[in-house]
Amino acid sequence: MSEDKALGLDEAYSVKTPEDNRRLYAKWAATYESSFVDAKQYRYPKAIAEVFNDVLPPVTRVLDIGTGTGLTGMYVTRLRPEVVIDGMDISPEMLAQAKRKTRQDGSVVYRALYERDLTVAVPNENAPYEALFSSGTFTHGHLGPECLRNLLPLLAHDGWLVVGVNNEHFESKGFEGELDSLVALGAIQTPEILRIDVYEPGSVHYGDQARVIITRAIN
User: Fold this and answer.
1) CA dihedral over 109, 45, 48, 183, signed as positive or negative
2) Which is more confident, 83 or 28?
3) SS3 of residue 49 by DSSP
4) Which residues, at least 6 apart from 38, have a Cβ–Cβ distance to it below 8 Å?
5) For the packed helices 71-79 and 44-55, what is the interaxial angle rounded to 10 degrees?
6) Taking the CB of residue 83, how many other CB atoms lie within 10 A of it?
7) Is the dihedral of CA 214, 148, 169, 109 positive or negative?
8) Number of other residues whose CB lies within 10 A of the CB of residue 146
9) N or C terminus of the chain: which is more exposed, having fewer CB within 10 Å?
10) Number of alpha helices (DSSP H) and beta strands (DSSP E) in the chain
11) What pTM did the predictor assign?
């Protein structure tokens, strides 16, 4: 088995710095969907897209945080063909895969893709977005609760956040306390928290869950 195909959750959860993330996904990008998403029956991107579609009113300009190979954006466009999606990710190799994703009409999923480190203040070349979503980025070794504050300037007033967080990561890293602080500061509305399955029934990881933070920015 090649090094790429051997990569998986242990490696993803063990990274500690933005540079670790860049190195991991540079190696994993080309085989990520075949060796992990398909092999492990990973439904997280589809689940976030379904929550986005079920909860949000009509929106046009949205942002995919931690785009990866673009699966979440692809699923969002299947449910809402009219949306214009931009993406941000730390890995240029993963963004290169996302650039190839197409909608059902054959057009590209993403209008624009940006290489960004989301652990620091995030430059935005566009007008504030109406909504953002994130799947698989707030997890062990990746983004912690403090990074939520970096996302808020990307949103218009009353802009929506639909952010998935690994369940154990949510509890161990204090996401609830950070959300309470943001509410107290008047930065976000009181969030709704849903639970979703990350893997399909039959997966060796079935039973793993994520929390989905649903709220709106008050900036």
Assistant:
1) negative
2) 83
3) helix
4) none
5) 40
6) 22
7) positive
8) 12
9) N
10) 10, 7
11) 0.84
Length of the chain: 219
The label of the residue with tokens 């300037």 reads 153
Q: Which residue type occupies 15? A: V
Using 50, 70 and 90 to split pLDDT, how confident is the model at 4? Answer: very low
* Predicted confidence (pLDDT) per residue in 16-72, tens digit: 565 666 666 555 556 655 555 555 667 889 999 999 999 999 999 999 999 988 999
Place of tokens 């063990």: 14
Alpha helices in the chain (DSSP H): 3-6, 9-14, 18-28, 32, 44-55, 71-79, 92-98, 148-151, 167-172, 175-184
Residue with tokens 């090094």: 3
Tokens of 205: 């990881």
Taking residue 127's Cβ as centre, other Cβ atoms within 10 Å add up to 8
Residue 89's Cβ-side half-sphere holds a number of Cα atoms within 13 Å equal to 32
**Rounded Cα distance, 191 and 189, in Å:** 6
Q: Are strands 110-115 and 192-197 parallel, antiparallel or unpaired?
A: unpaired
Determine the Cα–Cα distance for residues 86 and 65; give it in Å rounded to an integer. 9
